[in-house]
Specification:
alpha+beta
């Protein structure tokens, strides 16, 4: 089981990338994976919020918990200039 310190480390690593463009890959179940680009907008004690570039799907923001990153249900890549850097 994930400890509070592990989730806190994930949160602190995300705080360093606030406002940066990221690539989001999320597992929605039943082999459905969405891939979207957005900006890491907010980091809260239990969740983080991503503002999506593509608003055609009816929502402009999504939020996930840090345990989603820990269990690989969500993967993030931070864009640095033209390159992508994987953070989890």
């Amino acid at each position: 089981m994930a400890t509070v310190q592990t989730l806190d480390k994930i949160r602190k690593s995300l705080e360093k990338h606030l406002g940066k463009k990221i690539l989001l890959k999320a597992n929605k179940g039943r082999k459905q994976i969405i891939t979207k680009e957005g900006i890491l907008e907010k980091v809260y004690p239990s969740v983080f919020v991503i503002k999506l570039d593509d608003e055609t799907n009816g929502y402009s923001r999504v939020s996930y918990s840090y345990s989603d990153l820990l269990t690989d249900n969500v993967k993030l890549q931070v864009f640095k200039n033209q390159d992508k850097l994987k953070i989890s």
